[in-house]
Design a protein that fits this description.
The chain folds into two domains: 2-143 and 288-314, Rossmann fold (3-Layer(aba) Sandwich), CATH 3.40.50.2020; 145-285, Rossmann fold (3-Layer(aba) Sandwich). 30% of the residues lie in helices and 27% in strands. It is built from eight helices and 16 strands. The strands form four sheets. A seven-stranded mixed β-sheet has the order 10-9-8-11-12-13-14, with helices on both faces. Strands 1-4-5-6-7 form a five-stranded parallel β-sheet, sandwiched between helices. A two-stranded antiparallel sheet has the order 2-3. The radius of gyration is 20 Å and the shape is globular.
Length: 316
């Protein structure tokens, strides 16, 4: 087995290797002067089971192209099996035709990964679970919830209510509420455009309660911050937000700094430059152990089913 990393999140790849006692494979990934990507695998992979760690976070197109080229390089070097490890799957929000003459880019990316030579996909907290069906190769879909739950247990939160900031996240919020044995509420919202949302109403009892907002992804933080402001107005006490992938662009960071959210709990699936997120109350939990265990089990052809289970329940 050999594990390689692109440039999108090398610290996570190193942490994965450390968790399973493996060495990170040697490869050279650098740009040509004209911006094209050059890749050279600097060790023998003939007959090996290869895992390539590369979240397709911003700059999404660059990181995707890098992944395609790395997959092609190890395929042409005669690797037996290639697993693309995407802790974060970019373009996942473009998973349907919700208006005329638009693409289904999540499916296009799936086709491109297979065309490049990937034999298997390992990913985490997809924006929509049906994206697994876009692939004609095996997909192992993990959840960050067990890691989140271990941290939340240490907070000893009382009078807790789990809140989904929109209708789409209701299933995830319900799973958290079942495991944390607390109430469930939802914020009904209307999206104005790609960067702005307008929170409308709260369905469920939240007055006088501590709130845990759960979502799979935040970039501009519009949904989260608007929902938090509305919940505070309706009498919520402390507000925590649990988000698997906090990409946070400049707009998102600024909104988080001004928001009423007391703590943003997220994972290291994507790399965030430290100076850029100064002033945001953020706790980053590592999913390296979870991904490492999945890689080990995939390599040994053993079941990854137990990785979905925690506290006697299931995350899905």
């Amino acid at each position: 087995m050999k594990i390689f990393s692109g440039t999108a999140n090398e610290p996570l790849a190193r942490a994965i290797c450390k968790s399973i006692g493996s060495e990170l494979g040697k490869c050279c990934v650098q740009p040509f002067p004209d911006g094209e990507t050059f890749v050279k695998i600097e060790e023998n992979v003939r007959g090996e089971d290869v895992f390539i760690v590369q979240p397709t976070s911003p700059p999404t197109n660059h990181n995707l192209m890098e992944l395609f080229i790395m997959i092609d390089a190890v395929r042409r070097a005669s690797a037996t099996r290639i697993t693309a490890v995407l802790p974060f799957y970019g373009y996942a929000r473009q998973d349907r035709k919700d208006q005329p003459r638009v693409p289904i880019t999540a499916k296009l990316v799936a086709n491109l990964l297979v065309a490049a030579g990937a034999n298997r996909i390992l990913t985490m907290d997809l924006h929509a679970q049906q994206i697994q069906g876009f692939f004609d190769i095996p997909v192992d879909h993990l959840y960050a919830a067990p890691v989140m739950y271990e941290y939340l247990k240490t907070k000893n939160l009382t009078d807790l209510a789990v809140v989904s900031p929109d209708v789409g996240g209701l299933k995830m919020a319900h799973a958290y509420s079942q495991v944390l044995e607390c109430g469930l509420a939802i914020v009904a919202k209307r999206r104005k455009n790609a960067t702005e949302v307008e929170s409308m109403a709260v369905i469920g009892e939240i007055r006088g309660k501590n709130i845990l907002l759960v979502d799979d992804l935040t970039e501009t933080a519009g949904t989260l911050t608007q929902a938090a402001a509305l919940l505070k107005k309706k009498g919520a006490k402390k507000i925590l937000a649990c988000v698997s992938h906090a990409i946070l662009n400049n707009v998102g960071v600024e909104r988080m700094r001004k928001s009423v959210i007391d703590e943003l709990i997220t994972t290291d699936t994507v790399q965030r430059p430290r100076p850029a997120i100064d002033g945001v109350k953020i706790t980053t939990l590592s999913v390296a152990g979870l991904l490492g265990e999945a890689i080990k089990r995939i390599h040994n052809n053993s079941s990854v089913n137990s990785l979905f289970e925690f506290k006697g329940g299931r995350t899905s």
